[in-house]
Amino acid sequence: DAGITQSPRHKVTETGTPVTLRCHQTENHRYMYWYRQDPGHGLRLIHYSYGVKDTDKGEVSDGYSVSRSKTEDFLLTLESATSSQTSVYFCAIGSGLYGYTFGSGTRLTVV
Amino acid sequence: KNEVEQSPQNLTAQEGEFITINCSYSVGISALHWLQQHPGGGIVSLFMLSSGKKKHGRLIATINIQEKHSSLHITASHPRDSAVYICAVSKGGSEKLVFGKGTKLTVNP
Prior knowledge:
Radius of gyration of chain B: 13 Å
Radius of gyration of chain A: 13 Å
Helix content of chain B: under 10%
Shape of chain A: globular
Oligomer: heterodimer
Order of helices and strands of chain B: EEEEEEEEEEE
Number of strands of chain B: 11
Strand content of chain A: over 45%
Shape of chain B: globular
Helix content of chain A: under 10%
Distance between the termini of chain A: 30 Å
Number of strands of chain A: 11
């Protein structure tokens, strides 16, 4: 969707290195989310944000941190990547009232 | 037990068949969402429902709030409908989505 972009789309990194994924929106939406998608688990919430500098943990937050210094950008950082963090990561914006829009995903491989 | 359960997990159909995917949930919700994900692709929102029924082209979504159940129907299915269909709910009082594990639909020509 044109209103939300993720970068990079694909990344291969080595175990132990830090990795940052970026989510950028042009919808001026208050709420932003990071999910990971794995076979057998579906989509699981990592972290979410309800405003600039306001973030909270989701159900699988260990090993991840986030930052939101501007309304339009929500960054997800893997402090020290592990093989268990190999996954497809999706960013989303939205709310229960207006619905949700998802980014195209980032396929991350940790070797 | 998961808060959102979908059935079936996998579904194979012949082109032209009528398809139904079911979703049951166990929590209070403000809305239910049906999402579509093509192989290797992004996630697209198909419907957002809080009551009744919605239709878009060959897709129909219904929800029964009392029974905590929703169905997604595809009429005259086509191979391009092959995708994973995901049910998600917005829990009352929260903006966070809770997801089912998805139904993988394959429509053969």
